[in-house]
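ok trying again, last paste got cut off:
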Amino acid sequence: MVAKLSAYSDRSAFMRRRELSHDQFEELQAIARRKLPREAQDDQDMVRGFPHPRTSVCGALAPDSAVIGADGREYRCGLQVGEVHRAVGRFGEAQKGEIFPDQAWWNTFDPTTLPTCSKCSFLPVCWGGCPKRHLDGSQTDIQSEGRFWRTNLPRLIAAGFDELPPPGFVYTEADQFRDGAPD
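nice, full thing came through this time. structure:
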């Protein structure tokens, strides 16, 4: 997917030398649409013109994702195999009385509606990170994901231009959560 990087704060002004104008960016998008074969155009995750997180962050979010454990239970995430309470079905027929409450969670997971992710300016990059962390409610892991991106995103952006960010540059929580800290 062609994406435009922008220097959205004075702290990231070092990117402005490489920032494209709106017209330049539209030109690049048009070239990509013309030159890339249809199957290589990365818009399969687009819904009404917006990126859609369902199939772009984790294989467990794909509608046909399944991992069958030795216990015959179906799991969405390979890291959950053996966690019986996390099963979303059973290979073959479910046993009488078996219920799978996590199945609905996986089918409706959307980081754009989460308290932390919905306020995060990095959301298009990470799509909330590992969905299992959200299902487990692991705030420590979710906060760690944010720290990872605050530290590494400047380096990754600069590397795209064969450059380095200023020494010690990292984004702050205020940069990440421009509308205030997450809930």
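cool. The radius of gyration is 20 Å. The first strand starts at residue 46 and ends at 47.
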